[in-house]
TrEMBL record:
One of its GO terms (biological process) is negative regulation of DNA-templated transcription. It comes from Octopus vulgaris. Pfam families: zf-C2H2, zf-C2H2_6. GO terms for molecular function: DNA-binding transcription factor activity, RNA polymerase II-specific; RNA polymerase II cis-regulatory region sequence-specific DNA binding; zinc ion binding. Its main location: nucleus. Residues 14-41, 42-69, 70-97, 98-125, 126-153, 154-181, 182-209, 210-237, 238-265, 266-293, 294-321, 322-349, 350-377, 378-405, 406-433, 434-461, 462-489, 490-517, 518-545, 557-584, 585-612, 613-640, 641-668, 669-696, 697-722 form the C2H2-type domain. Keywords: DNA-binding, Metal-binding, Nucleus, Repeat, Zinc, Zinc-finger. This is C2H2-type domain-containing protein. It comes from the Eukaryota.
Length: 722
């Protein structure tokens, strides 16, 4: 009662003359001073161990006698002292009688409250005399000192491993025994440590008690908050003592060090493959055993991992219990929600220790790492092609087998890849939840938005390791590499011609069959591709309802010289060079300059004779992409540029521009000699020859010269008799 009264008066008359801390009772001050002096006056007569507090010694003695006379009447667990039983019972009742008078948080034990208060006061009374680091508990200081001395007093008599902390030793022993004493009362899952159970329960409750005081983001685990804060501070406290590289996570440092040592301590006893982490070895072994111990009780499908079974079950129930608190989207798997949130935050927590590149998804980083090692251990037994990942080999084999195991339940269409089916489903729902924050364009999936944003940033993250050329999309890089390797895996079974893409083979086969499956319902004209039909239908549409092409969408970027507007900022930059005359790209062969990099690249083809653009239908090759594009329209019959006066259509924009002058009478090209005007530049060029007498077309048979190509062509026929 005397002690209790002090809680009303708040009087703390006994003060420590070393640190200034005050206490209600003189006995408590006496005990406290032992923190500073290190005095331990109570000795165990059995083992000689010393204690600063009598109660601690009394409790210690029970470890010698093994006596546990206090038993829980709820679960039967026994304790060596009454206080232990009292605290234990609170795990059943949920009682937390010790409340923090600063933040109101409650605790089941007084010592836990005392330690908690240190988070408010910042008090850390136990200081290391070697490095001066301070701790809130003496035991933490004791454990810390082992880091200086290297002492590991706790030894496992099964595997011989040693530990500096008793708690770590206790947890380790459970790996051998398989004991998991802490069970979740919601799903029944068991854990070897109480803290793991506490963390796990938050997956059910959604509790995120740790908040970032900079951006307000919340986390379910304290260490996740600590790691997150480093994205704000840029702190990288873990340093490699070999190369000096720093990391924000200790796990990343551990993995990085294996780059230097080459150490992969976990070995498969079947194929001798080694792994950096034990969990990876466990998963790998299932490849050999084929074991799938987890079965769906609804459809009978089996899985090698429980996690995969749990995710699969949601396909039956349709349940999506994990919700994004930013956009409201729901997910059936918590990891997918975590990945999704990075779309909003831009967080990329996975870093390549070789080149420093960051990734939002662990798998992306794993795939990227293979670009450094070059390791491709999974080989196709049909064509010999090798892959970094077994999943990629599985997908590749479908090229040979034609297997399409993923079916859309709406329309029945089949796909060889799960992601293709997922993306296809959005065509039924029309859902486009991923919006570009620069131009506002929306996409049905995050990958589409990621690729689109590169049109604004100019980023091309996929680089060819042969020629160094970069691409915005992985698939474009894959197709490009075929130009180096010559690989054409899709072969026509009629004529034997090979192609780099399946769709190109499909189109090619139409030249044999004559098949044109896409028919216009207005004029009955048929096409071999759906997109050709779509373009063709524009020729029937009234201009007011025609869909927007790149030239009719919103133009929000303006030239400050002439006022012309553009839909992309890069187009403004290119346009301004028509005013400034800037030509920053120079040919290193002839010195000629160009305003655009792609024009320089195509110009170089005139020196090398290279014609990299090949028509898969007729085999003709072109040195310039624009010529190739126009040529393809001859096969497709597409004429996308329509005159809004007479509705005549043209395959090229320049043809439409010239045609419109027949309506407007515009003649923008003027002869500076006689003042005559022309509607086309070529007509002016021909006219000028009447003044200069220039005859650039020479007959190599009779030597006669002509000012116009048409006259020269007609003349040649007099020699050939054609």
């Amino acid at each position: 009662m005397t002690r209790h009264k002090y809680t009303h008066t708040g009087e703390k008359q006994y003060q420590c003359d070393i640190c200034g801390k005050s206490f209600y009772l003189s006995s408590t001050l006496t005990k406290h001073k032992r923190v500073h002096t290190g005095e331990k006056p109570y000795h165990c007569e059995n083992c000689g161990k010393s204690f600063s507090d009598r109660r601690q010694m009394t409790q210690h003695k029970y470890t010698h006698t093994g006596e546990k006379q206090y038993q829980c009447d709820i679960c039967g667990k026994s304790f060596s002292h009454a206080a232990g039983l009292t605290v234990h019972k609170r795990t059943h009742t949920g009682e937390k009688p010790y409340q923090c008078d600063i933040c109101g948080k409650s605790f089941a034990q007084r010592i836990t409250l005392t330690l908690h208060k240190c988070t408010h006061t910042g008090e850390k009374p136990y200081q290391c005399d070697i490095c001066a680091k301070s701790f809130i508990r003496r035991i933490y200081l004791t454990w810390h000192k082992h880091s200086h001395t290297g002492e590991k007093p706790y030894h496992c008599d099964i595997c011989g491993k040693s530990f500096s902390q008793r708690s770590s030793f206790t947890v380790h022993k459970r790996r051998h025994s398989g004991v998991k004493p802490y069970q979740c009362d919601i799903c029944g899952k068991s854990f070897s440590q109480r803290c793991d159970l506490t963390k796990h329960k938050r997956t059910h409750t959604g509790e995120k008690p740790y908040h970032c005081d900079i951006c307000g983001k919340s986390f379910s685990q304290r260490n996740s908050l600590a790691e997150h804060k480093r994205t704000h501070t840029g702190e990288k406290p873990y340093h490699c003592d070999i190369c000096g590289k720093s990391f924000s996570l200790s796990s990343n440092l551990t993995k990085h060090k294996s780059v230097h040592t080459g150490e992969k301590p976990y070995h498969c006893d079947i194929c001798n493959k080694s792994f950096l982490q034990g969990a990876h070895l466990t998963t790998h072994k299932l490849v050999h055993t084929g074991e799938k111990p987890y079965h769906c009780d609804i459809c009978g499908k089996s899985f090698s991992l429980k996690y995969n079974l749990n995710s699969h079950k949601y396909t039956h129930t349709g349940e999506k219990p994990y919700h994004c608190d930013i956009c409201g989207k729901s997910f059936s798997v918590s990891s997918n929600l975590t990945k999704h949130k990075r779309v909003h935050t831009g967080e990329k927590p996975y870093h390549c220790e070789n080149c420093g590149k960051s990734f939002s998804d662990r798998r992306q980083m794993t795939w990227h790492k293979y670009t450094h090692t070059g390791e491709k251990q999974y080989q196709c037994d049909i064509c010999g092609k090798s892959f970094y990942l077994s999943s990629n080999l599985t997908k590749h084999k479908r090229v040979h087998t034609g297997e399409k195991p993923y079916h859309c339940e709406n329309c029945g269409k089949s796909f060889s890849d799960r992601r293709q089916m997922t993306q296809h489903k959005y065509t039924h729902t029309g859902e486009k939840q991923y919006q570009c924050d620069i131009c506002g364009k929306s996409f049905s999936h995050a990958a589409g938005l990621t690729v689109h944003k590169r049109t604004h940033t100019g980023e091309k993250p996929y680089q060819c390791d042969i020629c160094g050329k970069s691409f915005a999309q992985r698939i474009t890089l894959t197709l490009h590499k075929c130009t180096h390797t010559g690989e054409k895996p899709y072969q026509c079974d009629i004529c034997g011609k090979s192609f780099t893409q399946r769709i190109t083979l499909t189109l090619h086969k139409c030249t044999h069959t004559g098949e044109k499956p896409y028919q216009c319902d207005i004029c009955a004209k048929s096409f071999i591709r759906r997109i050709y039909l779509t373009w063709h239908k524009h020729s029937h549409m009234n201009n007011s309802i025609r869909p927007k092409d790149p030239d009719t969408r919103e133009k929000q970027y303006f030239c400050d010289i002439c006022g012309k507007s553009f839909s992309r900022s890069w187009d403004v930059t290119k346009h301004k060079r028509t005013h400034t005359g800037e030509k920053p790209y120079h040919c290193d062969i002839c010195g000629k300059s160009f305003s655009l990099k792609n024009i320089l690249a195509e110009h170089k083809h005139t020196h090398t004779g290279e014609k990299p653009y090949h028509c898969d239908i007729c085999g003709k090759s072109f040195s310039q992409r624009s010529s190739f594009t126009v040529h393809k329209r001859r096969h497709s019959g597409v004429k996308p540029y329509q005159c809004d006066i007479c509705c005549k259509s043209f395959p090229q924009r320049c043809d439409l521009t010239k045609h419109k002058r027949t309506h407007t009478g515009e003649k923008p090209y003027h002869c500076e000699v006689c003042g005559k005007s022309f509607s086309q530049r070529t007509s002016l060029t021909k006219h000028k020859r009447t003044h200069t007498g220039d005859k650039p077309y020479h007959c190599d048979i009779c030597g006669k010269s002509f000012s116009q190509r048409s006259n020269f062509t007609n003349h040649k026929r007099t020699h050939t008799g054609e």
